[in-house]
């Protein structure tokens, strides 16, 4: 199994979107400051996760979300509790 996850900065409410097959280990890495892109966030909180069958699917969804660069869309995903992106077969 794989996950797409959204972290929120404790400092200024910015979002970080990522994907992984080991969510617990990845979160530990973010929380310890081991990820340069979230290190400057001043701490992060996991606010959303969605499971996928494969890492390939999760990476596809992650890339689509990052291309959008729209905080309002991420807010809707968090509020609704799911991501509505069709994965090509």
Description:
The protein is of the alpha+beta class and about 90 residues long. It has a single domain (about 1-80), classed as GIY-YIG endonuclease, CATH 3.40.1440. It contains four helices and three strands. It has a three-stranded antiparallel sheet, with helices on both faces.
What's the short story on this structure?
42% of the residues lie in helices and 26% in strands. With 89 residues, the chain is an alpha+beta fold.
Defining key terms:
42% helix; alpha+beta; 89 residues; three-stranded antiparallel β-sheet
Set down the secondary structure blueprint.
Layout: E1 2-9, E2 15-20, H1 23-31, H2 36-39, E3 44-52, H3 55-68, H4 71-80
Distance linking N and C termini: 17 Å
Number of domains: 1
Shape: globular
* Weakly predicted, low-confidence segments: none
| CATH structural class | Alpha Beta
Instruction: Please tally the helical runs, counting DSSP H or I stretches of 4 or more residues.
Output: 4
Structural class: alpha+beta
Order of helices and strands: EEHHEHH
Question: Which CATH architecture is right?
Answer: 3-Layer(aba) Sandwich
CATH superfamily: GIY-YIG endonuclease
* The CATH topology: GIY-YIG endonuclease
* Tally of strands: 3
Radius of gyration: 13 Å
Please bin the fraction of helical residues.
40-55%
Assembly category: single chain
Biggest sheet architecture: 3 strands, antiparallel
Mean pLDDT score: 93
């Amino acid at each position: 199994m794989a996950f797409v996850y959204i972290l929120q900065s404790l400092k200024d409410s910015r979002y970080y979107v990522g994907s992984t097959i080991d969510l617990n280990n990845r979160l530990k890495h973010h929380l310890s400051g081991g990820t340069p892109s979230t290190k400057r966030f001043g701490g992060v909180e996991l606010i959303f996760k969605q499971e996928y069958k494969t890492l390939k699917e999760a990476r596809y969804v992650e890339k689509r979300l990052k291309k959008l660069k729209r905080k309002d869309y991420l807010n809707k995903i968090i509020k609704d509790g799911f991501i509505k992106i069709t994965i090509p077969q």
